[in-house]
Amino acid sequence: AVDSGPIFDTEPEQKVQNDYHYDVFAIKCQHPEQSEFVHETYLIEQDAHNVIIESVDMNSDSKQIDQNDEDADLAKERELLASLIKKLKCEIDESKNHNKFLETSNKVLIDKLKSEIKDFKNKNNSLELSNNQFKEANNKLSEENYFLYADFKKSQAELKRRDSIEYASEMELE
Q1: How far apart are CA 153 and CA 166, in angstroms?
Q2: Which of 40, 108, 117, 173 is at a distance of 20 to 30 A from 93, taking alpha carbons?
Q3: Does residue 74 lie in a domain region?
Q4: Looking at residue 55, what is its pLDDT?
Q5: For the segment 70-100, what is each residue's pLDDT rounded down to a tens digit?
Q6: Is residue 53 part of a domain?
Q7: For residues 138 and 131, what is the distance between their CA atoms, to the nearest angstrom?
Q8: Is residue 133 part of a domain?
């Protein structure tokens, strides 16, 4: 499956069979132009009585050879077309197999990606929950810190008041 691309990507055009001036890409047979061969010749003869006799010389051997050449050319064209069709079918089958492989790979990757996204969402939710818990704990600590600081200030004021002379004289009077 490593070399699963179409053959025309790897084989240069020069390797394509190109016999008898056959243009594979135009699907036409190109023959050099010739004047049309005349198979029948008419001889005109005159006999002793001035009667014209026409005789037909039928060259059947030449017709048969030409027909055999045309049949051979057609047979080679058929073979070439059959070979090209076979190669195209192989390429199509390889392409279908490669596409199935790619579809399967894509499905696996999509499933893996969905799983990763689900894990990410779960971790994100867990982190958000932890963050909210830390915020609540921080708010409680801030509130407690505020009250402790207020108590500290009250205690500090009370100590300052007790250190004063007035406080000492009040205590002595009692």
Answers
A1: 20
A2: 108
A3: yes
A4: 47
A5: 888 999 999 999 999 999 999 999 999 999 9
A6: yes
A7: 10
A8: no
Q: Is the dihedral angle over the CA atoms 42, 43, 44, 46 positive or is it negative?
A: negative
DSSP string over 14-61 = GGS---TTEETTTTEE-----PPPP-EEEEEEE-TT--EEEEEEE-HH
**Based on the structure, what is the number of domains in the chain?**
1
Residue 66 has pLDDT above 80, yes or no: no
Task: Report the pLDDT value the prediction gives residue 28, as an integer from 0 to 100.
Answer: 47
Classify residue 162 as left (phi > 0), alpha (psi -120 to 50) or beta: alpha
Question: Rounded to whole angstroms, how far apart are CA atoms 5 and 16?
Answer: 17
Per residue in 137-162, pLDDT (tens digit) is 999 999 999 999 999 999 999 888 87
What's the angle, vertex CA 139, arms to CA 138 and CA 144, rounded to 5?
Answer: 95
Q: Under a CB-based contact definition with an 8 Å cutoff, are residues 91 and 7 in contact?
A: yes
User: What type of residue is 66?
Assistant: D
Residue type for position 67: Q
Is residue 21 domain-resident?
yes
How many helices (H) does the chain have, and how many strands (E)? Answer: 3, 4
The tens digit of pLDDT for each residue in 36-50 reads: 555 555 555 555 566
